[in-house]
Write a structure and sequence with these properties.
Length: 115
């Protein structure tokens, strides 16, 4: 079993639990964007967007850099990679469980009689 840093996963899942933050991550998956560009399609104030970005940064999902008066955000895929690996491990575990159940049911199923 792979080892994970629980705090990293907790922060990432917490950050991704909000639809506005997921929308920001989705937009950043296309490439870097300014805070104002991220705010445009969202039904919230610019200050709310900044607060949401802070949560994403603390979770390690987003990095930002200020050049002049513009703050540009980019997606940091390291935390997403860890989340993806954790989910893949759960999927693999349950797939194996279902395969074992299917094999057990096939072994123990009564044979059909032809009539």
């Amino acid at each position: 079993m792979l080892q994970y840093q629980p705090q990293t996963l907790d922060l990432a899942f917490q950050a991704l639990s909000d639809p506005g933050r997921r929308a920001m991550v989705e937009r950043l998956s296309l490439g870097p964007a300014s805070v104002s560009d991220l705010a445009k399609p969202l039904p919230m104030s610019l200050s709310a967007v900044v607060q949401h970005l802070k949560v994403l940064e603390e979770a390690g999902l987003v990095r930002s850099e200020k050049v002049g008066r513009t703050r540009t955000c980019t997606l940091d895929t390291a935390a997403l990679t860890q989340v993806e690996a954790w989910i893949a491990e759960r999927r693999r575990f349950w797939s194996e469980q279902y395969d074992q159940l299917e094999a057990y049911l096939a072994r123990t199923a009564p044979e059909e009689t032809q009539g």
